[in-house]
Design brief:
By secondary structure, this protein is mainly α. It has helices at residues 5-15, 24-27, 34-42, 46-53, 63-73, 79-100. Helices cover 64% and strands 0% of the residues.
């Protein structure tokens, strides 16, 4: 599995919250902020994993099989793990900004 710029773009698009008053030609997929990222990561189920990293297989995959996996496994990361990753991300961003100055 290769993570490409297209994969990152697809992830951001999946996270985006549509803005009701605007069309896609004005704001793209919508708005992404910390709350949307947190919601996306805490709700990252097997079917979302497949949708992100193997979107071409969604048409081939049996929706029932993915639904069963979602039900049995639930989200792949719990709140604590997501909070840990978010903290690492923001601390590293702060460090990088401080280092650049």
């Amino acid at each position: 599995m290769e993570i490409s710029p297209a994969t990152v773009k697809h992830a951001i698009t999946m996270m985006a919250r549509p803005l009701e008053s605007y069309g896609p030609c004005e704001v793209g997929a919508g708005f992404v902020a910390g709350a949307e990222v947190h919601s996306f990561l805490t709700g990252f189920t097997p079917s979302r994993f497949v949708g992100l990293f193997c979107p071409e297989t969604l048409n081939c995959a049996q929706a029932g099989g993915l639904a069963v996996l979602d039900e049995k496994l639930g989200p792949l990361w719990d709140e604590q793990r997501v909070a840990l990753y978010e903290g690492l991300f923001w601390n590293c961003i702060g460090f990088a900004v401080a280092k650049v100055k």
